[in-house]
Amino acid sequence: MIEILAGTVAGVILGLLSGLFPGVHVNTMAAIMLASLAILLPLFGPFFLAAALFSALITHCFLDAVPSTFLGIPDADTALAVLPAHALCMEGKGEEAVRISALGSATGLALAVPVTALLLLVMPHLQSSLDWASGVILVAVIGFLLVQSEAPGWGLLVFFASGILGVFSFRYAFLAPPLLGESVVLMPLLSGLFGISMLLYSGRGAIPPQRFSGLAIGKEGILKGTLLGGVAGIVVGWLPGLSNATANGVLASAVNYTRDRRGYLLATSAANTMNSVVGLAAFFAVDRMRNGVVAALSLLEIPPLPLLLLSGTLASLAAYLLTIRLAGMAYLLEGVDRTLMNRVVMIFVAAVSLIGAGIFGLMLLALATAVGCIPRLVNVPQVFCMGAIMVPVMLYSFGLGGI
Questions:
Q1: Rounded to whole angstroms, what are the CA distances from 64 to 17, 61, 82, 348, 382?
Q2: Which of 3, 220, 296, 402 is least enclosed, having the fewest CB within 10 Å?
C-alpha cells in the first residue's frame, strides 16, 4: 500500500508537468519510463511504477484544460474543446472554463468507477461483435454532422482533406525521430488544425480581465454532460482504434460546441476521464491496450484493479484542487498583448514540433494549419477537421489499412 500511495504522489507530479506543458503527453512520459525500466524497476518496484503511470494519466485529464483554455493549444485530448474554452477566455471567463472542465473530469471519474465493474462482467462476452463497430459509429456521426451543416459540400471537402492529411501523417510517421513513437505526430497535426489556425484569426488587443462569478451551467446541464461524456468515453475506451480526439468529434454530434460551450466542455472532460478508466478495464478484461500508459502497464507486474482505481481516485482529488488553484491565477494574464502572446505560442508549438517530430513535424504543422484555415474561409464548423483522426480509424476498422 505504501508503494501505491508513493506512486500516486509521483504520478500527480508527472501529470501536472504533462498537463501544463503543451506537446508533452503522459504517453510520452510512459515511453520514457519504459526506456528506463531497467533502472527504475529495481529502485521503485512495479506497484509504484504502475500507480505512478495511472495517476499521471488521470491527473493529465484535469490539468490539460489550462493550456488549451488560456493559450489555445490543443493536445490529443482537447482537440475540439480548445475552441469553446479559449473563446470563453477571450470573454474574460477563462477561470470558469477551466473549472467546468475540472468538474467534468471529476464527474466522469465518479461515473467511471461503478461503470467499470459492469463492463468487466458484460463486455468480454460481446467483444467479437464490437470490434468492427467503431468505423460504423464514426460514419454515422459524420453523416449526422453533414446533414446538420448549412454547407454539407464544403464540410465533406474539409473532412476528406483533413482525413487525407491524417492518413499521410500516420503512414509516414516513421519519418519522425523514433524516440517518442508514432503518436508524436499528433502534436503538430492537431495543433495546426485546431490551434495555430485559430490563433491566426484571433483578435488583437489585450487579454480581457478575467473574472469568476460562478458556473453558468445548471444541475441538468452537468447531468447531461456527464452522461453524454460517459457514453462517449465508454465507446472510445473500449472499441479498438478510437481515442479522446474521436470522442470530441462524436460529442459534437450531440452537443453543439458553439451554442452550448459549457455543456460541451463538461462532456468532453468527462469523456476523457471515462476513456482513461475504461481503457484500463479493457486491459484487465480482454487484454487490449488502448493507450501508451496501458501498454507500459502490460510490461509490469501490476496491482489488482481496485488498488489502481483507488490510486486514480486519490490522484483526481489532488488534480482537481491543483486545477482550481491554477484557474484562479487567470488574473495574471490581464492586459497581456494577444498578438504578442499568439506569436510566442506559435513559435513554441513550432519548436516542440521540431524537437518531437523533426523536419517532418514542421512540415506537418504547416500543412495542418493550411487545412485548419479552410473552415474559416468557407464558414463551416471546425469539427470537420476531425477527419484527420476519424478517417484513419474508419479505414483501420474496415480492414483497409490507413494507420
A1: 10, 6, 10, 16, 20
A2: 220
Could you tell me the three cell numbers for 5?
Answer: 500511495
Q: Can you tell me the distance from the alpha carbon of 209 to that of 91, in angstroms, rounded to the nearest whole number?
A: 8
The residue to which cell 462482467 is assigned: 121
Name which of 200, 227, 155, 180 is nearest 390 in CA terms: 155
d(CA 259, CA 240): 31
| DSSP code for 192 | I
Q: Which residues of the chain have pLDDT under 70?
A: 22-25, 27-28, 31-32, 34-35, 73-81, 125-134, 178-183, 202-204, 240-246, 253, 289-292, 401-403
- DSSP class of residue 196 equals I
Q: What is the pLDDT of residue 99?
A: 95
pTM listed for this prediction: 0.79
Separation in Å, CA 22 to CA 18, 19, 63, 201: 7, 7, 11, 20
**Full DSSP string of 64-88:** THHHHHHT----TTSTTTHHHHHHH
User: What local confidence, expressed as pLDDT, does residue 403 receive?
Assistant: 47
Residue 338 has a pLDDT of: 74
Residue at grid coordinates 457514453:
231
Q: What is the pLDDT of residues 381-401, one digit of tens each?
A: 888 888 888 888 788 777 776
User: Of 60, 248, 111, nearest to 119 (Cα)?
Assistant: 111
CB of 328 closer than 8 Å to CB of 212: yes
Tell me how far apart the alpha carbons of residues 329 and 62 are, in angstroms, rounded to a whole number. 16
Coil, helix or strand at residue 337: strand
Q: Which three cell numbers stand for residue 298?
A: 502490460
Report pLDDT for 58.
93
Which candidate, 183, 166, 240, 186, places its Cα nearest to that of 391?
Answer: 166
Helices (H), 149-260: 152-171, 186-191, 197-199, 219-238, 244-252
Neighbours of 42 (CB within 10 A): 8
> Three-state SS for 189?
helix
Q: How many helices (H) and strands (E) does the chain have?
A: 19, 0
Q: How far apart are CA 96 and CA 79, in angstroms?
A: 19
Q: Which residues fall within 8 angstroms of residue 49, CB to CB, at 6 or more apart?
A: 7, 33, 40, 41, 300
End-to-end CA distance of the chain: 40
